[in-house]
Write a structure and sequence with these properties.
- With about 140 residues, this protein is mostly helical.
- It has one domain.
- It contains three helices and no strands.
- Helix 1 packs parallel to helix 3 and helix 2 packs antiparallel against helix 3.
- The longest helix is centred in the C-terminal third of the chain and has 41 residues.
- The radius of gyration is 20 Å and the shape is elongated.
- The N terminus is likely disordered.
Length: about 140
């Protein structure tokens, strides 16, 4: 394995990798949980609306949350794969690739933190609505 470049030439990559991995995993998990809760809310609520339209809306919105969770998990896997390639690249390519991949992970980590916050608020709202005895929609 090649040595790390001199201090100051690139952002310290292992910390960025860990932070990105943690945030992406949290966002993926929260999105999956939100999808399951939205899809299941008509079954959990005491005063659930009846009809195929409401069931369809719950399934579509739950599916969007689930798809977002799978998308974030896929992005996480691909970016971590790029980071692994950057660690083992030859010296001339290594510095450029590490810099770009590190910056990408930092940007995605910041975006992931925003997404994680939004999903946490959404889950809180979903659970509050179910606790009141109503499904998410209707």
């Amino acid at each position: 394995m090649a040595a790390w470049p001199a201090a100051g030439s690139v952002v310290h990559m292992p910390g960025a990798t860990r932070a990105f991995s943690l945030v992406a995993t949290a966002a993926s998990a929260l999105s999956t949980v939100a999808g399951i809760l939205v899809a299941a809310s008509p079954l959990l609520a005491e005063h659930a609306p009846e009809g195929p339209v409401y069931a369809g809306v719950h399934l579509v919105v739950g599916g969007v949350f689930l798809a977002t969770g799978f998308l974030v998990a896929g992005i996480r896997a691909q970016v971590l794969g790029l980071a692994a390639i950057a660690r083992t690249a030859a010296e001339p390519l290594m510095n450029a690739l590490r810099t770009r991949v590190t910056r990408l992970m930092i940007l995605l980590t910041v975006a992931g933190l925003g997404l994680t916050g939004i999903l946490a608020i959404a889950i809180f709202a979903i659970l509050s609505r179910i606790d009141e005895g109503f499904s998410v929609f209707g």
